[in-house]
Every structure is written in C-alpha cells, then in structure tokens.
Specification:
single chain, 215 residues, alpha/beta, Maf protein, seven-stranded mixed β-sheet, 6 helices, 7 strands, globular, binds inosine 5'-triphosphate
Amino acid sequence: MREHRRVWFLTSNKGKFREAQAVATASGLQLQMLAAPKIEIQSDNLSEIASYGAQEAAKRLGIPVVAEDAGLFIRSLNGFPGPYSSDVFKRLSNKGILKLMEGVSKRNAKFSSVAAFCAPSRKPRCFTGSVFGYIGLRPRGVGGFGFDPIFIPTKGDGRTFAQMTVREKNRLSHRAASFKKLSKWLLTVQANWLKTPLANDTAQNQPGCLRERLK
Ligand code: ITT
C-alpha cells in the first residue's frame, strides 16, 4: 500500500516544492512535482486561488491534485503584496519592496500559505499556515527563493529565511504548517484517494501528457 501514498503537486516553483516535499515525506506522503503553473483566478483570497487551481486541474486531469497559493503580507503596506506576491516579486523583487519600506520603522509582516487538495468531482479542501516576522533593512542570505532574503521570522534567531537550510525554514514556515496539516489529513481521513492507481503508472498520465492537458 505504501507505494500509493503519492499525490501530484501542481507548481512551477522548485523552492516551494522542495520545502513541501520534505514536510510531506516526514509525514509518510510522497509529493510528485507536476511542473506547470497552477490555473489562477483573480482574487484577493489565497484560499480561493489555491482551491480553484486544484479543482480546475483535478477536473482537467481526472486525478487528485494539490496546489498551493502563498503570499507575503506587510502590515505597514496594508497587507501588500499579499495575493499578488508572485507578480510583485517578478516586477519589483526584494529591492523594490525595501525601497517601499524606506524610513518605515514598523516592519511587521507575515507569510501565509494555503495548500488545497482536490479530487475529481469533489470539493477542494484547504489547509492554512502562517508565520509572523518582520522585513529586514537589507537582503541577507542566498538560500530559499522569493522574499526569503528580506523576511526574518519572529520565532527565529535573527537570520532571514534565506540564511536557513530547508530543514531550519521548515521548523518555522507557513508552508511547513499548511503541508503538515494537509499530509496528516490525506493519510488519515482521505486515505482512500491514495489507494487509487498512481497517476504516472499509466501512459497518458506521464508528466508531459498531464501538462498538455492543462493547456
Ligand atoms: P506556483 O503558482 O506555480 O505554485 P508561484 O511561485 O507563482 O508558483 P504563488 O502564486 O504562491 O507561487 O506565489 C507566491 C509568491 O510569493 C512566490 O512566487 C514568492 O515570490 C513569494 N513567496 C511565497 N512563499 C514564499 C516563501 O516561503 N519564501 C519566499 N517567498 C515566498
């Protein structure tokens, strides 16, 4: 039965996948990366974005899928960039965020993650995780991805996420929290879905074919 404890995670973000995979593996669940961006709706709600992405992919692929939406919420910027984090990072990067924060002393921020699971013809199920911290004065570290070099978790030791290993970041992170909950739920409450033949066991469910069906 163990070999069926696997599920596809639809994401184009390798850093995200690495972190989620480490958490899921520790719980006994194997995540497989389906390297395509999730199908996104315009919304200011992470749960809506993650749910839609998972539901739409499960419908098109005919197999259970996990999708995640995450964002950085900066208090002094009224929660910006929040659900728009992906686009904002591409346009402004960390330098742009630090510029917006010039002269701002209250630098509190949080990362949130919503991991959504959806099986075909079912309603999606969401799991949330958050981590509180603050925005540093300059980028530090080369690990992780995205806003990691400027985010310092309150419960850490003063280092940014980018100065931590994946294991260290996973002790504190929003993503570790959401994927821990999702893995536990999948392996207990929804164990039946994991008994279905694995998506990549059949020819039409090789990653290349799955990606084609998402287009
Ligand atoms: P997929 O949609 O393909 O999963 P993505 O990178 O576009 O990948 P999101 O839509 O969830 O993922 O975008 C969230 C963005 O917020 C992400 O691209 C990063 O720039 C940032 N972000 C989210 N979680 C982060 C983390 O743990 N560390 C640093 N930046 C993070």
